[in-house]
Predict the structure of Aminotransferase.
Amino acid sequence: DVRLSRRLASVRPSATGAITDTARRMKAEGKPVISLSAGELDFDTPAHIQQAAIDGIQNGQTRYTNVGGTQQLKAAIARKFQRDNDLHYADAEIIASTGAKQILFNALLATIDAGDEAIMVAPYWVSYSEMVRIADGEPIVITPDATSGFKLTPDLLAQAITPNTRWLILNSPCNPSGSLYSADELRALAAVLRHHPRVLVMADDIYEEIVFDGEFASFAQAAPDMKDRTLTINGVSKAYAMTGWRLGYAGGPRWLIGALELLQSQSTSNPSSVTQVAAAAALDGPQEFLDTWRARLRVRRDLALGILADAAPLLTLQTPAAAFYLYADCSATLGMKTPQGAVISSDIDLATYLLEHGGVAVVPGTAFGLAPYIRLAYALSDTDLKAACEQIVAACKRLV
Ligand code: PLP
């Protein structure tokens, strides 16, 4: 009989995908939907980056490149790590891939055997747990207190480490909570890891540029003695509004980068040559526009928080320090009834109700391993954001 592999049986489809699909269907049917579900900026890729890609195409940069990225791109990545993170990586310690997603996936595939564990912190980005499962490993989920900003503490980390632990996956700024670890907090985690030399650290820094309060620090920057077992992951998707271009990169120990390159060479080969030209222009080019973007996003964050305050206590929110998401506690809506008579018994029910009867797409916290919450991505126009938040408040007030 035709069948799927056992490997796939353990993998859950993305809950973010399901909501996006319903929203798309509603739009196709002519029903107005404002989406707060997409994890991307609504800004255009800056003109100088677009132009670099156009020039690249016209200059013939349209062929296979080195698997792990061109010399030009690797040099730009090395300069970025040095400039922004005080991290020195040689060429053989750098890889460029088709999105940070490919790096995460290949790193887990390259290092995890059946029974190995990867620690992640809830709420966590949806793909971490499923990637670990695809690699035959076991996701170990730590759920810190919401009152400590959803952040992992040294105690919780120490309790979670077992002889099977292979990875600690850290994501600061965090999607979806928006929390940001200070350098001191990272150092405190490093102090625990020093007792467990076989545990690797995945530092997913993809939201590095989107910080409003506090200062970003990369893990290996905060704890330099951890550098030889840290994979520092970043990309151009979130920083430069380049999600569709698909370019992520990482710095790490040679043996690991070599393994990633081996996997990549036998699967997808180099990331798009044209995208590499654009990414090098993004990393080497002017960075000042990021200040404008941050300022605009901060206005939106505060606009959304201001409007959603009216939905309290049905929705309760903290002010996130970074990234472009709000993670709203919706526990007070559980057990309430919609005007249509349906009982809200989970955050999935609430998200479905907000979509079908409020015209707003959000992602249920269940997808991120911490319920009952909803995640609202606020990187959309002020007008749409205002309307969406008002519709959410109105829909919440219709619950009885
Ligand atoms: N890591 C986190 C925390 C993300 O939110 C995302 C995208 O949503 C990624 C990684 C993947 O980014 P990329 O577009 O580089 O694959």
